[in-house]
């Protein structure tokens, strides 16, 4: 009845991030050369989002502030590899992996255990033969959504600390004082500041992804899927989930940028725009197309990341 012993390694979880990181490094370098009023932007390397501070208060030159002018994506790939070395395409990956790998492991373990438990309860309640491995669509949907809520909730305070440490190079005593001030001003729940924009995007994506993946896997095979079958099902499921949740991603990016500037450059509690306000603002200035902005780059990044992650996950079971 149970799947083989669940095993997963940091190497497997880092594989997807290492593969798609160059895409975001190039995107960030292109963004950084533009004159922008924003003091920070998001760097998403396949495992988690990472704030990059670039305001005048940030005097240190980070990898995304290196000199260079690029005329497009291909030009950036060529010039970065030629002038800074091939490994520069993976800039900024190490600090993210420190927190992202345990988070991703927690996410996959939570999903697997929830799926097995719900399937066992369903089979027992409906007197289903365990050998049939029956899996209604709602089991991976609920398991995926719940697993993402668990992972995001646990990691949110740690991500807040990591963001402050990397942006301002604060000492541990300064971090402790900053957190104490935040709790005094906003209460304990201030440590989860900005969690809802993340949940708005990640929970629907996770639910849709796992539901489609389990369905496609059942169509492709009756037993344990091969690496190729898992890779294909993961890529297609990731593309479907990414397409449906693009508006959530656009809103989340806007809200996280706003939150990032406040997190990096002030400790004062300030009111953020709600999801509805951001949606209205985007629609007012850019129409419905604005809500689906960045669909192509998102698909290019998300589909292979999901394919690599899930095929490694299945292979490690």
From TrEMBL:
It comes from the Eukaryota. PANTHER family: FI19922P1-RELATED. Pfam families: Mito_carr (PF00153). One of its GO terms (biological process) is mitochondrial transmembrane transport. Its main location: mitochondrion. It is a multi-pass membrane protein. It is found in: Mitochondrion inner membrane. One of its GO terms (cellular component) is mitochondrial inner membrane. The keyword Transport applies. Solcar repeats lie at residues 4-117, 135-219, 225-317. This is Solute carrier family 25 member 40. The keyword Ion transport does not apply. The chain crosses the membrane at residues 87-109, 137-161. Keywords: Membrane, Mitochondrion, Mitochondrion inner membrane, Repeat, Transmembrane, Transmembrane helix, Transport. InterPro entries: MCP_dom_sf, MCP_transmembrane, Mtm1-like. Belongs to the mitochondrial carrier (TC 2.A.29) family.
